[in-house]
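Moderator note: this is an archived Q&A kept for reference. The question asked for a predicted structure of one protein chain; the sequence and the answer are reproduced below.
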Amino acid sequence: METRSLWVAPWLAGAVLLMADAGRATAADDVVAPVPDVPPPAADAPPAATAAAPDTDASNLVVPDDTHEDGQTDPIARINELETKLNQMQELVANRQPRVIVSGYADLGFYATEGNGSGIVRDQGNVFFPQYAGKYGWVFLGDILAPAINSRGEVADLGDATGATPRYDPIHSGGAPGFIVNEVNLKLTSGLGKSAIATASVNFTPRTGSNFSLGDVLDVDIAQLEWMPTRSQKTSIFVGKFDSVLGIEYRERKSDQRYGITPSLISRYTTGTAIGLKVRSKFGPDDMLVLAGAVTNGTFTTEQFFFYNETDTNLGKTASGRISLHPPIPLDMEIGTSGSYGPQDRSPNDNGKMWFWGVDYQLHLRRADLRAEYLRGASPGDPVNGVYALQLHGGGYVELVAYLQAHFGVIGRIEYRDAFISLGDPNAPGGADRAYLTKGWRATGGVHVNFTDRIILKAEYLHNGEYGGVPQIKDDVFTSSLVLID
């Protein structure tokens, strides 16, 4: 409102500045660069007084002695000079103000699950896998993160993992359907000059508290500085907590970016954010070749899983990288491969190494997108320090998004995960503490309706299944999401 008023009434502002300028008592002249003297008008110029604004009596303006050689004053020249100073002051104030873009979204949902909302059952008495008898004190079958209900990958219930240390079960529905505020996100973006951008993203998740304590959680998933040192700005250097370089699913990990709702079964290994240093460069026409590499405290697994380090307890760091190619053909496609290697997360020593390797593919058509990923990985574990071991024999998905109308589309995904996770040494006296065996597959179908670019409604049904001798678990999920974007 202040800037608009100054432009609507420039003569009034000019008069005020004239009086201030005459006394040389204001601070404005101390901070504004001097304006060169305006040369006198040509001999055939019209009288200065005739150029005054209709609503302004130029004869009443108090001006310093600014005269031509013929002794006549030139108020137009002085007013132009003062308007220039006024513009300089406005620019000075504007440049001193912080320029921060505030954005975010609210993700509201409703879900319903089969059974008790959990994706695991206990193999009591080693009925289904007798080969584990005497080696593991507790054996659980299924996938603890399979019955996901939102884009965060949270499940309706963690189930009864007998003998486990106390866990934070944020939803703990017990199989009951319910409404939920999945997430409220706040994002801050600020340009720090022409080649640097600072970004922070904070998530708020209201959950149930107990024993006189709140259950609400706040987590910072992005806190980074991106510097683009080259003139083309095709090379970016990231410092802080940033997105993954593994695979392609991390690009749509947030609910305002994801066309569907739930993440894939292998997203827990590739869509987390890590702290460290990352470099990404694009080469060739249409960014035909893209290289990315990072050195971080730990892997890009999600925080809720068994394998995650925000801050390190070991000396070594995890190195990861990705290379992708956009072939110079009429089709808009991308082929990539990525991997990571470093000390296993949550271990205080560098003895065990954790690694992941995978390939990805995506094809963009006018009315459809096709995506696919495959991933393998392993970590030996650390029984002395209570660190889980992982054998990801394989996991992957194929996903198709069809844009049927401008505001309506459908999504379908088929996927699987074959993994064995254990805690302890099975060859030690008394065996290991526990094991989780997963041989699961999932089929997901969903719809997407965007009423506007800021109001999006999504719904999905997840059918979880088992194979390879694992009994069928009732853990299908219906879930919905209303995303309100600022």
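Archived answer notes: Residues 2-96 form one domain.
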